[in-house]
Amino acid sequence: MSSTTSLDRIPRPPNDTDDLESADVTTTLLPTPVSADAQSIKSDKAAAKKRVSLIACITLMLVALFTALLFAWRHSRSHDEPTRHKVLVQAAHGAVATEVDTCSDIGVQILKDGGNAVDAAIAAGICVGSINMFSSGIGGGGFMMIRHQNGSAHNINFREAAPALAHKWMYEGNPKASQIGALAVGVPGEVAGYGAAHALYGKLPWNKLVEPSIKLAREGILIERDLASRLKLLEDDFLADPAWRTVVAPNGTLLAEGDMMYRLNYSNTLERIASRGPSAFYENPIASHIVDFLAARGGILTLDDMASYEAKVEEPIKGWYHGREVLTCRAPCSGPVLLEALNIVEGLDLKNVGYTPLGAHYLVEAMKWASAGRTELGDYVEGDPDNSPRIAELLTKEWAAKARANISSDETYGWEHYGPKYDFIENHGTTHLSVVDEDGMAASITSTVNLYFGSRLMEPTTGIILNDQMDDFSQPGVSNAFNLTPSIYNFIRPFKRPLSSSAPAIIVHDGDFELALGSSGGSRIVTAVFEAIVRTYDWGFNLLDVVEAPRLHHQLLPASVSVESGVSEDIVNGLKERGHEVDIFPASRPRAEVQVVRRYKGRQKGKTTGWVEGVSDSRKGGVAAGY
User: Fold this and answer.
1) Which of 26, 52, 212, 217 could bond 267 through an S-S bridge, CB–CB 3.0 to 4.6 Å?
2) Where is this region: Disordered (predicted)?
3) 88-220+262-318+422-626: what fold?
4) Is 472 known as a binding-site position?
């Protein structure tokens, strides 16, 4: 593995028999200093004691120095350094991994204040939507996997729903209306989802989870690189819209990296939700502001749509991979795609094959088979064809064996070989966060407003940015360039929820939590999560490499492998030799971003215990936190 990544300087976790006598939190920030070789001390007892004292002092000074440097970096208002820092956090109690360092810190503070993983995940999730408002927010929706330390687990489906007046032909002749404007907006689900999670598992009062984001929005949000670059993409639109202009260009000029942004009306909305509970979002005056605003722009969302929305609390679907239980979400999320891919590669002996050209080829072939299966997923509502038997078949080890029998070690095949039934839906945007607490409760959330800034509509009184999730439905009547028709399982129906690429997952080993992960990045989400799991359990990558090493992606169509720059030449050439068309994916293009936390078993002062690690993907500027 050392030949494919330069991240091996990050210390690996101690062995199970090691005692953890260090500080509660260790944060390693690249570049990591090279430690000196241990020196044997051959002197009398007095000299030995002096040497030990000197080493201890130097160690403490180095720890203090690097802690200070990390703190200064994380909280500095200056961002002249273009380097993306790659950070591994090791902690004794719990960890939070999000795409925004401030939000990781807020999640950890909730844990310190006595909250559990669900509390921390909710607080961090609201925070991410407040800062990185281009990717998620209370005007959007998503999925949340939760596993309690007692073994109970739930998936909360808070995906946006189609309004009652929606129908499958509503975008005929105007397909862009599903992306921009009032007709693009589905009933937002995030607040209902967080409310359902809190009702099931929450420990701290609801208002305590919302208050940190109220303070941020009111006292100022530092605009960092990712938000600044995405604001710039839509500068003309924002400057022309009074609601947006008030927030992102208060002085007539678009805010830039290093500026402070104030979301005052949004903070008032959060304050009402904090004091009155999650239901306040779906009641007047918030609901009427949203409905009236959309109606004035040709929208069809109604007060009844808002009032009737409910998050779905479901049993997760479960699979097994190398003796570990994998928990993920049901359709319309892409959890079934993740389990199908894992089932396929489990029988390909990737552990012995290793991260080699052949191993990479097998990984890509599994992605192609699973992507074909994804075309048959959808949310079932009354009146739809029932495809649940087919989805159940795709999740079996027997189906995986059939797919493996059609994988060659020497060559790849055209897309027809993998048997997709319908056209592909391209998803966009999203955020992901992962949390584990000291008791072993874990939460994994993927949330989104879909395209950057959703429908590009901000309701001015509430400050809420509204999703364009209706674009994730299939639109009938048009075949793609490969003559694949739109999926009958993903056509619009009232109250239906569109297909999603989200795949939040929790992995359990011997009855105990081990790993929580997920990704943002649209259609690249499920392949990024899949590859992260393979790297962990087959190829033995340390947790930083699991997240940061360059990735592969294939979604069957387009018929090429996306290879992130930095993948070794041997891997690239090996893929080409097997007939893969390779597209080198530069760092400047949007990618998937993985957030992961892991608990290890060990011993501390003679007792069996565990410690945790967290990594947030530097591709989106993320930094994890722990305590």
Assistant:
1) 217
2) 1-24
3) Glutamine Phosphoribosylpyrophosphate, subunit 1, domain 1 (3.60.20)
4) yes
